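To make the argument concrete, we let one protein speak, a sequence paired with a row of structure tokens, as a model reads it:
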Amino acid sequence: MRLSYGSRICFVFCFLIIGCWLFAQPNQPGAYGATPSERQLLWHQLQYYAFVHFGPNTFTDIEWGHGDESPEVFNPTGLDCRQWARVAKEAGMEGIIITAKHHDGFCLWPSEYSTHTVRESVWRDGKGDVLRDLSEACREYGLKFGVYVSPWDRNHPTYGTDQYNDVFKKMLTEVLTGYGEIYEVWFDGANGEGPNGKKQVYDFPGFAEVVRKHQPNAVIFSDGGPDIRWIGNENGYADEVNWCTVRKGAFYPGIIGVNDQLQHGHEGGDSWLPAEVNTSIRPGWFYHKDEDDEVKSLNRLIDNWYHSVGMNGNFLLNLPVDPRGLVHENDVKRLQELKDYLDRAFSVDIASGSTASASEVRDPENSYSAGNVTDGNPETYWTTPDDVRSSWLEIDLKGEEEVNAILLREYIALGQRVKSCTVEAQVDDNWVELTSSHTIGNRRIVKFKPTTTSKVRIHFTSNASPIISDVKLYRVPEMIADPRLMRSKDGVVQIWSESPDPEYYYTMDGSEPDRNSTLYEGPFTFSQSGTIKVRSYTEGGARSSEVITFDLDIPKTSWQVLDETEDKNLDRIIDGDPGTVWYGRSDEGIVIDLGNTRALTGFTYLPRQDLRKGGNVSRFD
């Protein structure tokens, strides 16, 4: 991006003002632990952007292409990248990352180093360039432009040899030098056999050098960064414990079996590697017509938002472009519903203009006063003397207000410090706990039961003096999470969700539940095959979730898992609890005694739910 002379002068002037402000602060706190780079700080300013999976898989109706598909299958009848950009902008997104090259090796630009590209397709007589169209559309709509470039290439004949790494770097150079400024480069760690039957040893340090040379401001994503990390699942969920710091060298692209660590980071880690939270708006990453009616519910997307943007991450939501070359109407509708919710939820900061006080302030001149947390300036902050590890902030709203959510930010340029916090409200002259949380980092949004109060107090426990730049309070529309159901081995059914104090109504005859149906008042026994349908309601029935259907087949009451080793963990296979896991050997089988003779037509199994890799059965008898 080129700035005009006047813009450059303005930029330099603003930079000098901020620099002078920082330099002039008395007794300024020092950094604690690992801190973010300039490019990472710019990335932290973002919240929500689009992933677009598009390529031959869109037309062959599969997720992972084999690389042997004819380039002619790629033929979008009405490709319009301006529609993608317009949809993203109207949804409140800040950028788009496109699968420039997926595992099949097909390039969405006419690469000189492959014969599996848009140049070989019939689309636009081989003269098209999706990256050109999208980069220009992003500039037109004021969106950032990013690229996903898979090192795995199931088409290129040199894959699996030393030569391929050089080929990939040349492809990467084309992408990074031909389409203007790029804000994020996304490396998938997937690694499999190529057309020559060989696997590739990737030169990820060399790939990163190419990015740094041509796009020095771009952040690089992979399981191991070096700038941002994967959250450890593809469900769109960060956890309450989410450190931006990790131990140097602990992660690398394609790493397997450390998903919990990827999700949580490492407290006290010596590298700054914040998490990006990704998921798709549909079950698949590429478009499939039979998923047109399986777009995630509004409640699920709202839940994803709070578990990504609200849990110290950035939200990367995939939009599978369809064979026309457009974002499908059903996806557009749901995106706009999410935007409407977010506008209603966060348009009014109830804490704005309030008075703030604190247990301690760093200096008597008030350079770091409590009032900085409500002044709307992200560069000012409240902090305490260096030796303080337990402290509190109090927000006086100057009158009673109903609130049910709080946003907290640390001034992360000086590190991530807060281990946990507790939020209280003054109700009838008593302090009542509303919620508690673990880490904060760049941004933490916590919901709680709607409460009318005039004062809110936040208690912090930290590894170093807390540095808080923002406290905001909201009255967000109550989110009604989809209900969940679990039936134990003994046939006992439990229903729950993540909504605060919901009511559940259910049916067992196939009818749609409403508030005239059976109210769930606690666990009940259902020891037969059948269907239970459940709907959540807010107290009073003002809002409801979608109806969720649970098909329950042969009950497990009389089942036993037979095992000569007396492995008690085997019972986890049939306990009905999705949170328990049995770990078996790769060649290990199991025997289940059903207790009586049954006519069987099939079976289901549930792999571990927080893993992208591992836990799935690849073959069975």
